[in-house]
Amino acid sequence: MVTDEYSSKVIPIWRDERVLKAVAQIISSIIVFAIIYWAINNFIEITQQRGMPLTYGFLNEAAGFPIAESFIPYDSTMSFGRAVLVGLVNTLVVSAVGIVLATVIGFIVGLARLSSNWLISRIALIYIEFHRNIPLLVLLFLWYFGVFNKLPAVKQSIALPGFLYINQRGFYIIWPQLAEGGALFVAFVVAGFVLAIITWVVLRRIREVKGKETHYGWVSLGVLILVPLIGWFVSGGEPILLDAPVLKGFNFKGGLRLTPEFTALLIGLAMYTAAFIAEVFRAGILAVQKGQIEAARAVGLGYSQILSLIIVPQAMRVIIPPLISQYLNLTKNTSLALAIGYQELFAIGKVTINQAGRAVTVFILIMAIYLIISLLTSLVLNIYNKRVQFIER
Amino acid sequence: MTVIPQESAPPSPPGALEWIRKNLFSTWYNGLLTIAGGTLVYFSLINIITWVFKTADWRPITVAPLLYLVGQYPREELWRAGISMLMITFLVGMSWGVWKRYVRSFAIFLGILLAFLAVFPLETPTITRPIRVFMLINPFLIYLGYRIGRTRRVQGRHVVTLWLVALLLIPLVILPGFNNSSLLPKVPTTVWGGLLITLLLSVGGIVLSFPFGILLALGRRSSLPVVRLFSIFFIETVRAVPLVTILFMFSVILALFLPTEARIDRVIRALMGIVVFSAAYTAENVRGGLQAIPMGQVEAAKALGLKNFHTTGLIVLPQALRLVIPNIVGQFISLFKDTTLVYIVGINDLLGIGNAVLNLNPEYVRLQMEVYLFIAVIFWIFSYFMSYASLQLEKALGVGER
Predict the structure, then answer these.
(1) Per-residue pLDDT reduced to its tens digit, A255-309
(2) DSSP structure string for A26-88
(3) With an 8 Å Cβ cutoff, is A346 touching chain B?
(4) For B227, which residue in chain A has the nearest alpha carbon?
(5) pTM
(6) Which chain A residues are Cβ-neighbours of B249 within 8 angstroms?
(7) How far is it, in rounded angstroms, from Cα B325 to Cα A60?
(8) What is the DSSP letter of A12?
(9) Shortest CA distance to B215 belongs to which of B228, B206, B204?
């Protein structure tokens, strides 16, 4: 029979797909590992000549270099590990503030771009096109050297008296300081926040299950205001003091000081990323089909209900993934701070390499930190994505 | 007899007043916004114009404009850069003739700009009359290329081939030259700079990263677990770290992993970093295109008896690549902007030249705004035209509508 004849034919080894696949994998692994082996061999040879072993023990040695700006205590007698930590914190702080600022600006610009007002929409377009077509590094130089470097001397500060002073040494801003009993007040604020969320969730659930009007929005807002208010009086009426910057001698004392480097990086990064975020928001809002809004109107929803129940949830689904990737871009772009002298993770890594002479170890450490930040972010993104995606069938 | 029904005339186009009422003052808050925005625009424009024409001191640019174009490239060998430029403008003209509207606005703009630069009254000894004449040749060459490109015999693939030949010839033969040549003496890359380096790194980066990116994308979708893991590891690692770290790795760390006698040129090292970085992003773009190709295409190809290799190369890849052209252009724009980072590893690209000019002459110490704005404008022009072309392309391919 024909079939028997066909099946009895043995496939030769060089045409058996399983064999071929296995061989292909073995060959590709051999090539990759051979290259790695060769590179490491070279590396060992060089390190033996120069004497820099691949260990992380040096992280405990004294760093010996100062860092201009640090959000955790640091001085040059502390260890290299501490210095890298300072860099990481600097990166995270500027990223976090930058993300908030970029989102706010991006949201406003995105809305302006969608405005029915021709002029406003055009201004937003100019903002977006300006930022999207110029390299971030050039923008940072423009901000730092072109603007912040030309700020007036301390005596001639641009001032909003009592609140804000801008001069060569940076921004001095009035800033709240915890007074006696301040901790108690903060505890109340946090408690109020948590209680408000719990109230919201519980009352909303009741509303959904029993169909009884519970005014969950107003009640939780009340909780949010009332609990801190009680805390204010319990803690003695003056839990927070406003610390205003004051000119003393040749410099300002008190308040919060933002260095020109930090501010230039922050503003440059935030405004650059905001241009991209504005487009993300615009695309998200435009992605909600008109029929959805018309249908919502047809079933009698009010304007605020259409916004909160129809437009925002659907737009968010489109907005969140690219938004997160913009946040990640912003975090990675903080590494450009090196060029304007703000010492974040990469800049400190570079100094550490110069000081400790352990280029590869430090470098692997820095790469690993960026990798972890990035992986954590995509993990969060994936979890969120799974929750909000349409489940079609 | 049929009576053609009398149609009422279409509504006359809205007058200027009607337009203003509708688009600027439709509601009271829109009116307020318009007034506020108008004031802002008015005062910004006045400030910008007075700054550009009165306050600003453009000497750092006008004294040595050639620096921004080619860096320290020896002036007696400048004709080589000139020849390269002629080749490119001619090819831009041909591309305009073949691909029409995608290139048209850029080609016309380039021609006008070069003609303008040729007659621009700059009082500097570096811009000699031959250079001006040379500049003036370019617009005509663009037009010549356009006329040739428009003829029916010239097709897209011819122009692509010519571009590839030019892109190989310029950075490998014309500009670097050879060690013992009297016609083309060696010019080390250490003296290359300015826009030359910026364009070289970005075009070289995208062209070289393209094949790697396609291989990585295919590898990531491969049925072989080992290949897939390698690809995923490479792509995700590169995409997770900033470009600066990769450039730094290639400019500093790489030397530690090579035999001591191996010395790689500084610019090549930066280019390697850019290619590695760009390949990971190209891979993700191409993968998006591959995923969009329906399984039916593969099955149909298999039913016809095509082998895996042919299925991928003849059926899946061409369709996938067509889908992702706009994304690739977008990636190219961001890569073009990102090449400024090579300044951090000490290469004199456009930005590096700007900084060098500022640092060398103490008179220019307060003129950063002028220099960086000039650089920003150059980048802006290039990126803007590329995104414009990409937008046209997207419309033509109808990618956004599917």
Answers:
(1) 788 888 999 999 999 999 999 999 999 999 888 888 988 999 999 988 888 888 8
(2) HHHHHHHHHHHHHHHHHHHHHHHHHT--S-SGGGGSB-----S--SS---TTSBHHHHHHHHH
(3) yes
(4) A25
(5) 0.86
(6) 363
(7) 50
(8) P
(9) B228
Is any Cβ of chain B less than 8 angstroms from the Cβ of A317? no
Tell me if A45 and B343 make a contact (CB, 8 A cut-off).
no
Instruction: Look at residue A296 in the predicted model and tell me its pLDDT.
Output: 92
Q: State pLDDT tens for residues A193-249.
A: 999 999 888 888 888 888 887 788 888 888 888 888 888 888 777 777 777 787 777
Q: What is the nearest CA distance from B351 to chain A, expressed in angstroms?
A: 7
| Closest to A62 (Cα-Cα) out of A85, A86, A80 | A80
Q: Do A339 and B343 touch (CB under 8 A)?
A: yes
Closest A-chain CA to B337:
A135
Q: What is the DSSP string of A185-228?
A: HHHHHHHHHHHHHHHHHHHHHHHHHH-----HHHHHHHHHHHHH
Residues of B in contact with A146 (CB under 8 A): 368-369, 372-373
Backbone angles phi, psi at A170, to 5 degrees: 125, -160
Residue type, B157: R
Considering only the beta carbons, identify the residue of A24, A49, A370 that sits closest to B242: A370
Q: What are the boundaries of each domain within chain B?
A: 65-192, 193-350
For B120-253, where are the alpha helices, taking DSSP H only? Answer: 129-150, 156-169, 194-220, 225-240, 243-248
Name the residue with tokens 């850029």: B106
For the record, the structure tokens of A198 come out as 């719990």
Using only C-alpha atoms, what is the Rg of chain B? 26
Q: Are A280 and A151 in contact (CB under 8 A)?
A: no
Q: Is A384 on the interface with B (CB under 8 A)?
A: no
Which of 42-101 (A) contact B at CB < 8 A?
42-43, 45-47, 49
Residues of chain B neighbouring A138 (CB-CB closer than 8 A): 340, 351, 372, 375-376, 379
Residue B182's CB is within 10 A of a number of other CB atoms, namely 6
Query: In this complex, is the C-beta atom of A118 within 8 Å of any C-beta atom belonging to chain B?
Result: yes
Q: Is residue B393 pLDDT above 70, yes or no?
A: yes
Whether A393 has a pLDDT exceeding 60, the answer reads no
Q: What distance in Å separates the CA atoms of residue A159 and residue A162, rounded to the nearest whole number?
A: 8
Nearest CA in chain B to A145: B368
The predicted complex's ipTM stands at: 0.88
Does A337 reach chain B within 8 Å, measured CB to CB? no
Taking an 8 Å cut-off on Cβ atoms, the answer to whether B257 and A39 are in contact is yes
Query: b/e map of A354-378 (b: 16 or more CB within 10 Å)?
Result: ebbebbbbbbebbbebbeebbeebb
Q: Hey, what are B392's tokens?
A: 């046209």
According to CATH, the superfamily of the domain at B193-350 is MetI-like (1.10.3720.10)
What count of other Cβ atoms lies within 10 Å of the Cβ of residue B173? 12
